[in-house]
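In the laboratory, one determines a bound structure by crystallizing the protein with its ligand and collecting diffraction data. In a computational setting the workflow is compressed into a single prediction: the sequence and the ligand go in, and a structural description comes out. We illustrate the idea with adenosine-5'-diphosphate.
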Amino acid sequence: MQFRYKKITIKVGSNVLAKSDGTLNVSRIAHLVDQIAFLHKNGVEVVLVSSGAVAAGRAVMQPCKKTDAVSQRQLWAALGQVKLISRYSDFFQEDGLVCAQVLTTKENFSSRGHYLNMKNCFSTLLENKVIPIVNENDTISVTELMFTDNDELSGLIASMVDSEALIILSNIDGVYNAHPKNEDAKLIERIEITDNEAQNAISSERSNFGRGGMLTKFRIAKKVAGDGIGVHVANGTRDNVLIDLLDVQQSLKHTFFVPNEKPSSGVKKWIAYSDGFAKGQIVVNAGAVNALNSEKAVSLLPVGVVRIDTEFKKGDLIKILDEKGETVGLGKAAYHSDKLDKEKLSEKQRPVVHYDYLYLENKNGAS
Ligand SMILES: Nc1ncnc2c1ncn2[C@@H]1O[C@H](COP(=O)(O)OP(=O)(O)O)[C@@H](O)[C@H]1O
Ligand SMILES: N[C@@H](CCC(=O)OP(=O)(O)O)C(=O)O
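The predicted complex, in structure-token form:
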């Protein structure tokens, strides 16, 4: 059997892993593990991002009355993660493989140093033929420092470990052109990174245990595809879904986000997912927006900056907005914001953000 990729990240949603009563669907976990083990034995490196801790914990106990919503999630995640990972560990062991748990928070991606540290951890596990199983560390992550959901986390991981593809397994065949409850809704089988229409069909509704819903899957999938990584959204409740999806001889119905032909560099990938950590903010004029989004590789010159909203130091990440307040991109500042005015007057202006350290929402795919 020949598979489409040699290195993939697979994200499994809570609704794939939990039954309708919230208890873990053990036979489904076993079946997914068997498929991953088969892929692994046939030379495909796999990083698994698995939700399901909160859903698993919910089935263990109901908290006492005075427990608030955040504490409740912490309790369930703490209880459920143990159950979840021990199931995975047992099933991988039966298949002769070793898995490892990696719990992370958004803060672990906040600086390039932290990011490279995480990257090194994954390289070590993969070199040792271990299957990393990643989840957000829900027990300690608080609201403002949380990932939107594990779809966002899986995008980051896929990009960080240089996966060729990200497979998002949910409880539905893919992205539909209307709410799937609608009888006329049709599966969209291919989405280009320039396609902004499909998003309008997606409602923000989530299924029973999901956190972000299809809308975040769509946004993240486009961003990841913009980095040059193909994204497949498929139904994890189907038997043999991973093998049927990845076997070159098969054509399973699902949604494929076509990757950008030009993959982003490592540092641009990190910047792409770091918008929560921007320290400065500037506003640029329409001319600068057009130049940056043109076919050419253009750095941001001080002449295009109309306003500094939040000051920044050399090396800080800065958010770049247009004059309507829409995000244009994110970049690493080449110098302190107090030098901008002087640079504007200079005959040979130095870029405030060099192209190599610039992530552009439209050009790199997300919108
Ligand atoms: N246009 C759409 N296409 C597909 N699914 C959609 C659409 N609009 C809303 N959804 C909902 O998104 C759900 C999947 O997202 P989510 O609940 O977060 O699952 P997961 O637990 O797999 O992350 C589907 O079950 C479906 O009800
Ligand atoms: N970290 C949480 C998962 C939250 C989440 O993003 O869920 P989902 O939308 O089902 O992927 C857990 O393990 O329960």
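The domain at 278-360 is CATH 2.30.130.10 (Archaeosine Trna-guanine Transglycosylase; Chain: A, domain 4). Keep in mind that any predicted model is a hypothesis to be tested, not a measurement.
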